[in-house]
Amino acid sequence: MTNQLTMYQASVPVFIKMLNNLSAIITKATAHAEAKKIEQSVFINARLSPDMFAFARQVQIATDTAKGCVARLAGNEVPNYADTETTFQELQDRIHTTVAYLQSFKPEQIDGSEDNTITLKLRGNPVVFTGKNNLLGFALPNFLFHVTTAYAILRHNGVDIGKPDFLGNLT
Amino acid sequence: MTNQLTMYQASVPVFIKMLNNLSAIITKATAHAEAKKIEQSVFINARLSPDMFAFARQVQIATDTAKGCVARLAGNEVPNYADTETTFQELQDRIHTTVAYLQSFKPEQIDGSEDNTITLKLRGNPVVFTGKNNLLGFALPNFLFHVTTAYAILRHNGVDIGKPDFLGNLT
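The joint structure predicted for all components is written out below.
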């Protein structure tokens, strides 16, 4: 079973790939805004519903979910990023900082974390996860929720992107 | 390493849980439509962008991605579902059929499929995956893309749902 699925494989490269895809999508949105002479803030503050988060917050939470999950699986302190981004470039910087942080982990720091105890405070209440449940039942779905919603906000507002941009290189 | 992450754990229960969450979301949408006296078709045909798929198609592709991934990992024929749903109840039936199909798999049918060769025809071209890459680089992100987009279409159209409905029971 030398090729058996590991916690590293199911987390770090998945987060990195999807964050790089999100970065490429933001690059397209930046060009679109410039070509159409639309202020970036129109996209950055756009929401799909009045009580959903705006685009910038979707990117912030996606990066938070990725760095939080990997840091906790490794038993490290979660780095704190100020949520102050107001331009596409600042959001790109946040994504790049997150990707560099994720790339700093070696497989042996994450592997074997299946049954680690991870306690998160969610909506004010502590939730106790195993490492495995945290990754599969919370972090991956939550991360992909926010990447998809960021994509959907841009798509809803006319940016010419498609599923291939979301999925990126497939193999 | 007896508790090591397996291909079964990273696929079948994740798909089942998120499909059950989607079903509960559709139950809320059904009640909302009835309370507000809005035809179900308004939601079922709703899109976030003119060139994105409507709600029904999002649910169809989410179920297709889940059953296709698990069938292929097990080396089984992928069951074919007619894409004819036009009501919330018919979409619920499709989700329940998919969940029952996924529940029919035993861990030993999926485990050890990390390096199986899986060839998919995507946008007309054959793409060759390992089992692991098919799950992590295609099926999970694609599945969660469509579940999130289905959620976002309902949310955009005023259905009172939130992140707890999307994530479901966390542990």
